[in-house]
Amino acid sequence: MSPRTSDQAERLAAIEALVCRDVGRKTEELIRVSKGGLAAAARSLSAATSVGLITGFFVPRGDVAAPETDGPVGTALLAAALSACGVPARIAVDSPCVAAVRAAVQALGEPAAVDEIALEDAADIDRVAREWHRSGVTHALAIERCGRSSDGKPRNMRGVDVSPWTAPLDDLFEGGAWQKLAVGDGGNEIGMGKLPVGLIARAVPNGETIACVTSCDHLVVAGVSNWGAYGLMAALAVVRPEWRPAIAKFLTAERDLAVTRATVDRAGAVDGVTARREATVDGFGPEVHGPLIEKLSRIARGEAAD
Question: In the prediction, which pLDDT does 111 show?
Fold first, then answer.
């Protein structure tokens, strides 16, 4: 292994160690089994010429049911970074979560088409799949998108059937010959079907009920799904050094917080763990997300994380 290859591998491993860690969901075994997935996903994504992203997770509880902050924020930032690198990116999302995605995209000011899909409308999914084919999508990337479980229903971490608020975007994900990448943090997201059968059931509370059966080519099991998106951004900067300046503009704590606030203030998004309408993600505030993002940025630049 050449010194350059060795350095790249070490930095990718450091990125994965930062973002792929259990934050209390009992996903340690899922993370262990999927080790190396972030580097593999980044290397695949580095060859993309057009990317279609899928996100949006609706939270039907709390004072006001709403989309959650995890997913749209990281997706919008990754889409903006890809666009700045010359790789067109578009985001598919269903109607209950579209306002959060649009708020996130608008907060960044970078071009990213948003493909809205109506609930219970298979024709709408077919329409977007045709558009993805026409636009030359080579890679589909699902980030924090609830997928179908063994009984065909999408379920949240509590085992509640959320199909009344969730279009079957698994069909779009699987609807082309594109490379299929996925980021999730709980076991119920699109892509988790790549894990060994029964693993989620054994490891995660309600795992047998919630485990998503939709698989993928490369899976990232992150502590928080937005972290997985940021990890991919940092990894792309390592794999494609010429992209580093463009990515650096979006891999900042300030951007993360600004976009999170935009989804809350403009679209009424909520924290998926607390169900509160505040600029936090999975129960963590900027005092947690910010330092992690800055460490990722330092690794991407070739500096020590600490």
Answer: 80
